[in-house]
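Deliverable D4.2, example record:
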Amino acid sequence: MRGFIAAFMAVLMLAVAGCADSGPGETDWLNKEYSAIEEAAKDSTVRFYMWGGSAQINQWVDTYVAEEVRNRYGITLVRVPMDASVFVNKLLTEKAAGKTSGTIDLLWINGENFKKCRQADALFGPYADKLPNFQKYVDRKLAAHDFGFPTDGYETPYGTAQFVFEYDSARQSGHPAAFANLKEWVKKNPGRFTYPQPPDFTGSAFIRQAFYAVTGGSDQYLGGWDEALFNRNAPKLWAYLNDLKPYLWQEGRAYPKNVAALDTLFARGEVDINMSYHPMHAQSKILEGTYPESVRTFIMKEGSIFNLHFTAIPFNASNKPGAMVVANFLMSPEAQLSKLDPANWGDFPALDNTLLPDEMREAMQAVDLGEPTLGPDVLGAAAVPEIAAEYVEALERGWEENVLR
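Output generated by the structure prediction step:
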C-alpha cells in the first residue's frame, strides 16, 4: 500500500510541476526557440521598471515603444518610474524572501546596480543570445562588460551615453577647458556652478570625471578594484571638491537633488554650467523649448566617460517571454533610429554601425543631431571607460563622508 501511495504521489507531483511550468514565468525559456518566446509574449503585459526623471524619455517609452510593441506583438507595456536603487532593493528583498513570482518584468539597469543583482543571483539568464537583434547587431566585445563587470548574457544593451558639459554662449564667451580651469572659473564666478548630489547618476559621474582628472587619468583604475590605490588617490579628489565648495551655488550648503533640478537651475539662469550623461541633451532641451538656441556642449581635455545602458530581466519576472521580446525590440535598428533623434530622446545607438543594413546606416547618419551636439569623432576621441563598480560605490560613500559632511 505504501508503495502504491508513494508512486501515486510521485505521479501527482509531476502533474503539478507540469501545470506550474505552463505559465510564462516558469517555463524554461532559455531552451525555447525565439519564435516560441514571441508567440508566448502575444497579448501579455510587460512591466518596465526604469528611472523616470526625464519627461522626454518617459514620453518616448510611453508613446513610440508602447505603441510599437502593442502593434507588433499585442504587448501592453506598463512603465513604472522608480529610481534604480529602489527597484534593485525591491528585487533583492524578493530574492531573499524566496518570492518566485515578482512584480518586475524588465529593468533599465547598469553599473553597480547590475553587479549587486548578479552577485545576489537575482537576474534571469543568460538570455542575450536568445534575442535575434543582439545576435545580428551588437558588438559582443563592447557589451561584454558593464562598469568592468562581466555581463555574461544577463543584460542587453540599448543605448550609449557619454558625459558632457553645457553652457549658454550668449551669456558667456567661453568655458573651462580642463578641471584645473574649472576650479579657477568657479572661484571667479561664485554661486554660478554646482553639481547634483551623489548618488544621483549624473552627480556621481561628475565626481568620477573629477577623480580621473585630479589623480592622473583612468588607465590606472582599469585593472579592477584596488583598495590601496583608491585610498592613496581619493584624498586628492576630496581636496579638489572641498576647494570648490564655498564658491558653489548656495555656497555648497546644499546641492541639487538630481540632474532634473540642475537642469532647472541652468534654464533659469541661476547657474552658468550644466552637465549631462547624454551628449544630445542640450539639443533635446532646445527642441523642447526649455533652453535657448545659444546653448552649446563641451568636454574637458582630460576626456569624457562613456558607457552602455542595458535592460535586464529579474529572476522571478512573471512574464519572461514578454520581457525578452521588448528587450529585443529595443535593440532593433528601427527603435535605435527613433531613439537617436533629439526630438524623441537623443540617445546614441547601442548597435555596431558596421553590422546595420545600408539603408538603416544611412538613415542614422542623416539624423540632425543639432548644432550643440559634439560630433561622434570628437566624442570618440575623448571617450574614456567607466571603472569598476567598487570605485563608484567607494566614491559615493567617500563624497558623503568627506565633502557633504
